[in-house]
Design goal:
Blueprint: E1 2-8, H1 10-16, H2 20-31, E2 37-42, H3 52-62, E3 68-71, H4 74-77, H5 81-93, E4 97-100, H6 109-142, E5 155-158, E6 163-166, H7 168-182, H8 190-200, H9 214-222, E7 229-232, E8 235-236, E9 255-256, E10 263-266, H10 273-289, E11 304-306, E12 314-320, E13 323-329, E14 345-347, H11 348-364, H12 366-378, H13 382-410, H14 417-446, H15 451-468, H16 475-485, E15 486-491, E16 496-500
Parallel strand pairs: 1-2, 1-3, 3-4, 11-15
Antiparallel strand pairs: 5-6, 7-10, 8-9, 12-13, 13-14, 15-16
Helix pairs in contact: 5-6, 8-9, 11-12, 12-15, 13-14
GO molecular function: DNA binding; DNA strand exchange activity
Pfam families: Recombinase, Resolvase, Zn_ribbon_recom
InterPro entries: DNA_bind_recomb_sf, DNA_bind_recombinase_dom, Recombinase_CS, Resolv_N, Resolvase-like_N_sf, SSR_resolvase, Zn_ribbon_recom_dom
């Protein structure tokens, strides 16, 4: 049985006219008969071996169904020289006659050399096509044009102008998300609360789904397009096209390019920049601010940090002469904790009363809030200390990896090889996690500290507090007001420092 193999990708069909019908017709002419079995891959890249029609052809060859294969060009079999050689070697070992319409393939040294040269040229051509397309897209982006519809919530894509325009209905939801997250609200709490709220109200997502997820809300909150900054050429997706042909542990992940390679495309702003920056500060603390509720509620949960060791201080019940007493401590007993803590402990009632007294004083006297914000400018940002600590941890992790690599190289007969590999993997993951924390803190430190906006937010907290009255406030309302005013509390041996936004 004679087989015809034809393949075309959309890109090649548009550029070179390699239509499937034309390929099949020329192959039939080469075969001299219409009694052939056709194997057609339509719109499939020649970069990978795992193609439906090609896979079926190889199976039929192994089963002895096919005796001769006709193809237009070697690059129809594959755009990679190595894959071409694998396929032709597989056919040769089974005595299959391989014929190309454009050029003959002979099993001689000269024929093999010519075939290899054509394969190398095809691979080079594919790389050049990709490079030209990427360069063209970058140049188009530099001209201020949006390359395609990126499906950004709050915007529509205008094909004629190649720009984003505001979708007023979606933009209203974007503003609502930021307001719910940055303003005092006892009904909706955190990213998950916003997602549940939008779902309950029947608001559709960009793709028309009825259910919102916290990660979708988080992506919206972090997207700088809403302050008029849309970036193209930010992500490197090279190689991801073939993920569907790879195993899970071999898949290529999307990587962020260096910031100097990003291309800024101005777009209509939906959110005020000061509110956006305020939201970024809240997001950096959201994981511990909105932690799951414990059996015993703690007023300052997610806000306390030891001023000496830098560990967060969490609430727990301590045993005091048979009586359970709530306290905050920086001690970490969980496996894999970054630092065990220096052992600082403080009674919950004492520090909660101290902090609430200060916050209530600010809320009762708005002028004190302005003074506190002004004083905040003179304090060293708490992020500075955290950055220094994380940089030390990164250095320690790097040194630990170097020692393990030396130990691995010096070990004989694979002694403890698996243990060393596992520890190296854990250290690599830890270093990556620390680098992510460092980047987040650095961005937070460099973000705009907008006193005017923060003052407006605090005035909203004042109005809410005065409208309720101190005696009428519930535990949850007190906690929300504290979180609205305070970004972090540092606990030292003889003092407590309260940092406002």
């Amino acid at each position: 049985m004679i087989a015809i193999y034809a393949r075309v990708s959309t890109e090649e069909q548009a550029k070179h006219g390699f239509s499937l019908k034309d390929q099949v017709r020329q192959c039939q002419l080469k075969a001299g008969t219409n009694k052939v079995k056709e194997y057609i891959d339509d719109g499939v890249s020649g970069e990978f071996l795992d193609r439906p029609a090609l896979t079926k052809l190889r199976e039929d060859v192994r089963e002895g169904i096919i005796s001769k294969i006709i193809c237009l060009d070697p690059d129809r079999l594959s755009r990679k020289l190595m894959n071409q050689l694998i396929i032709t070697d597989e056919f040769d070992r089974r005595g299959i006659e391989l014929v190309f319409v454009n050029g003959e393939y002979s099993k001689t040294p000269e024929g093999n050399l010519f075939y290899s040269m054509r394969g190398a040229i095809a691979e080079f051509e594919k790389s050049k096509i990709n490079e030209r397309m990427s360069r063209g897209r970058r140049e188009k982006a530099r001209q201020g044009k949006v390359l395609r519809d990126f499906q950004v919530y709050g915007y529509m894509y205008d094909k004629e102008s190649e720009q984003f325009i505001v979708d007023e209905d979606e933009a209203a939801i974007v503003r609502l998300i930021f307001d719910l997250f940055t303003q005092p609200n006892t009904m909706v709490q955190g990213l998950n609360g916003i997602a549940l709220y939008l779902t309950s109200k029947g608001v559709p997502t960009k793709r028309g789904a009825s259910v919102w997820h916290r990660q979708v809300v988080r992506q919206i909150m972090m997207n700088r397009a809403y302050i008029g900054e849309f970036y193209q050429n930010r992500w490197n997706t090279e190689g991801m096209l073939g993920n569907k042909h790879r195993k899970d542990d071999e898949k290529v992940s999307m990587k962020e390019r260096p910031k100097n390679e990003w291309i800024l495309i101005p777009c209509p702003a939906i959110i005020d920049e000061s509110q956006f920056e305020h939201a970024q500060r809240l997001l950096s603390e959201s994981r511990r601010r909105w932690a799951q509720k414990s059996k015993h509620p703690y007023l300052l949960s997610g806000l306390l940090r030891c001023g000496d060791c830098g560990n967060t201080m969490t609430g727990r019940l301590s045993n005091n002469w048979g009586k359970k007493v709530p306290e905050y401590t920086d001690i970490k007993n969980t496996a894999g904790a970054k630092a065990k803590g220096c052992g600082r402990r403080v009674k919950a009632q004492m520090i909660e009363e101290q902090v609430w007294e200060q916050v209530a004083s600010w809320l009762n006297n708005p002028n004190e809030i302005a003074a506190a914000l002004q004083q905040e400018k003179t304090k060293e940002p708490f992020e500075t200390g955290e950055i220094a600590r994380i940089e030390k941890e990164i250095e320690k992790t790097k040194n630990a990896r170097k020692k393990l690599i030396k130990l691995f190289a010096a070990s004989e007969d694979g002694i403890a090889e698996e243990e060393i590999r596992q520890e190296l993997k854990e250290l690599t993951q830890r270093e990556e996690s620390l680098n992510n924390q460092l980047l987040e803190l650095t961005n937070l430190l460099n973000s705009t500290h907008n006193t005017e906006y923060n003052m407006n937010v605090m005035m909203e907290a004042v109005q809410y507090y005065l409208s309720k009255g101190q005696e009428e406030l519930t535990f949850d309302e007190k906690r929300d007001l504290i979180r609205q005013v305070v970004r972090e509390i540092r606990v030292y041996e003889d003092s407590v420092e309260i940092y406002t936004f």
